[in-house]
């Protein structure tokens, strides 16, 4: 049975974020000033280097939600305080700072805003310490799909690779049929998420269009400084279409370097990470017609509360939201609702019991809700759509959505094939 939260009307939502209007993302300290009776929530994440946007946008997304509840009086008078730490993108450091946040900083809840490589390390710390944890950035399917990874107090409030793969494969197959795109190549980062995401996308593209043939697969290192070698190899191979799971600053670098070689003139491009507005605006010459999965848009889902979230976020971060922004905002609201139900008690098992199966009202759900599925602790009913780039606001248009009933049907078949179901 689903657990439904109370509504969040536009007036209530905006009212809860007014106090944040003048707070820049770089303005609030890594550890906010101690307040009496605060509930400390720790966040291990990446705050330096090429993909620092992951951490800064995650932090701002949580801050919007925390500002809202704190301005309304907190939980039984207790304010929520965010304490973040930079893992520098290293899994060993992610595990270390997570333990430090709990054992030394007094954090009673963890929002894991790590990339997938770090999230598996954080996951094992949570298995050991038993506090409530929301994984808000990792998209690697195995984190929650594999029963061996199950942790009672850990949940994923982030899109999952298999969901994107089903929708993306269907979308790509339709275009492949229309344009005769049979020769495909891939170029994705060489780590768990990159390989899992790419494998799943190609698998479903082939299911929906069997004529697709993969002629080459390239695996540059995560956070590689230069992609000339990969781009040159693609030009030599001459695929008709390329799929990439590159993300963050790595993807910006890849596209800008590809522009120099005119890669996209004769090659269709499909991206699992391009749809974040700050990335799109960072690209000096964004090509028209690149295909990307939905990451975030103020126009979609088309709810007034989504635009209210956008406005509140921009006032804090001084830039547009990312996929990580809304995922962390929603994750923070799962925590807030669970704390309401436990009357502010922070016991990991008690909070997990409330989050499990919760149906959260949120403007970031396709029907105004996102559900935390009980059986595997991952969200469903979030936007899974694909669109095409244009070199101006809103950057991605013509979103094609896939019904969740079809996604879940294929996901169940995938789980059985993997031995997960």
TrEMBL record:
CDD domains for the chain: PBP1_As_SBP-like
All residue ranges annotated as the Leucine-binding protein domain in the record: 38-380
InterPro entries xref list: BCAA_transport (IPR051010), Leu-bd (IPR028081), Leu_Ile_Val-bd (IPR000709), Peripla_BP_I (IPR028082), TAT_signal (IPR006311)
GO terms, biological process: amino acid transport
Keyword vocabulary terms for this entry: Amino-acid transport, Signal, Transport
Domain of life: Bacteria
Assigned protein family: Belongs to the leucine-binding protein family.
Name of the protein this chain belongs to: Branched-chain amino acid transport system substrate-binding protein
């Amino acid at each position: 049975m689903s657990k439904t939260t109370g509504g969040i009307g536009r007036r209530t939502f905006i009212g809860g974020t007014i106090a944040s209007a003048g707070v820049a993302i770089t303005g609030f300290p890594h550890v906010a000033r101690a307040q009496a009776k605060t509930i400390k929530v720790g966040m291990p994440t990446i705050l330096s280097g090429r993909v620092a946007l992951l951490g800064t946008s995650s932090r701002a997304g949580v801050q919007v939600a925390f500002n809202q509840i704190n301005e309304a009086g907190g939980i039984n008078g207790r304010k929520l305080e965010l304490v973040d730490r930079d893992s520098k993108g290293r899994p060993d450091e992610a595990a270390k700072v997570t333990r430090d946040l709990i054992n030394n900083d007094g954090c009673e809840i963890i929002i894991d805003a790590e990339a997938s490589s770090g999230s598996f390390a954080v996951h094992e710390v949570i298995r050991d310490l038993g506090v409530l944890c929301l994984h808000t950035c990792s998209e690697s399917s195995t984190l929650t799909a594999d029963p061996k990874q199950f942790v009672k107090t850990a949940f994923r409030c982030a899109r999952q690779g298999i969901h994107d793969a089903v929708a993306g494969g269907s979308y790509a197959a339709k275009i492949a049929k229309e344009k005769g795109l049979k020769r495909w190549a891939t170029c994705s980062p060489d780590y768990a998420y990159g390989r899992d995401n790419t494998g799943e996308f190609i698998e479903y593209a082939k299911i929906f269009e069997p004529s697709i043939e993969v002629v080459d697969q390239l695996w540059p290192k995560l956070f590689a400084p230069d992609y000339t070698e990969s781009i040159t190899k693609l030009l030599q191979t001459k695929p008709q279409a390329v799929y990439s799971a590159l993300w963050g600053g790595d993807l910006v670098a890849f596209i800008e370097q590809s522009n120099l070689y005119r890669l996209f003139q004769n090659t269709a491009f499909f991206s699992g990470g391009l749809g974040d507005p700050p990335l799109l605006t960072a690209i000096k010459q964004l090509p028209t017609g690149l295909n990307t999965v939905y990451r975030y848009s103020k126009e979609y889902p088309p709810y007034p509360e989504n635009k209210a979230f956008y406005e509140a976020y921009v006032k804090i971060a001084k830039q547009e939201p990312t996929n990580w922004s809304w995922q962390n905002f929603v994750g923070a609201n799962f925590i807030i609702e669970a704390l309401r139900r436990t009357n502010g008690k922070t016991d990991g098992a008690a909070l997990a019991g409330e989050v499990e199966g919760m149906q959260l009202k949120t403007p970031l759900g396709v029907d105004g809700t996102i559900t935390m599925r009980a059986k595997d602790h991952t969200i469903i009913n979030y936007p899974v759509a694909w669109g095409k780039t244009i070199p101006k606001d809103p950057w991605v248009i013509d979103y094609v959505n896939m019904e969740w009933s079809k996604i879940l049907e294929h996901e169940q078949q995938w789980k059985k094939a993997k031995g997960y179901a």
